[in-house]
Amino acid sequence: MAPVLLAACSTATATVAPSSHASAASTPTLAPEPFGGNGFRTNIPAGWQDQSTNQSAVASVSGTGTVLMLLASPDHGLIVASTTPQPVPDDQLAQYLTSIEPQGATLVGQTETVDVDGDSGVADTFVVVPATGATQESEEMVVNQAGDTYEIVVTSAQTDFASDAAGLQEILDSWSWA
Fold first, then answer.
1. Distance of CA 99 to the CA centre of its chain
2. Which one of 3.30.70.360, 3.90.380.10, 3.40.1000.10, 3.10.180.10 gives the CATH number of domain 33-177?
3. Distance (Å, whole) CA 32 – CA 48
4. What gap in Å lies between CA 49 and CA 45, rounded to an integer?
5. Do 119 and 147 meet the contact criterion of CB atoms below 8 Å apart?
6. CA–CA distance, 71 with 146 (Å, rounded to integer)
7. 38, 61, 121, 160 — which has fewest CB within 10 A?
């Protein structure tokens, strides 16, 4: 699956007139939202938008797998969680991960072992320099759980990657298999 940045993921923001009686107690706090996916639960980081029911957005990132979660960051980065069309054997996860990287991708570092709520998988980070547009950086991981292979990917402009990768870490920290 080649993740694609969606430039049109933003929605209109409501305009609120400030009150002269506002206090610190009335200031809303952005808290993570719970997300229940097919086979897992997690939290959506504050400020991120759930695009999982936006059919055109899901179609633009679906590749050959089934998209279970699509989140957009405030800076238009994306996190996609999907299942692969066929389960990948544990001993072939690293090879599979390499096979799904987009053409022209340059690895950043080595493939690493990851743990997602007690199940191990593999992850790598790569950079893609498109013919036009900003350089994109992605971290993708694959992990097996209950007979399915899950692919979890964060993609953003390289300049925003650290912030969006922190969002992915927040998601992984609250991830639990259902």
1. 19
2. 3.40.1000.10
3. 9
4. 9
5. no
6. 24
7. 38
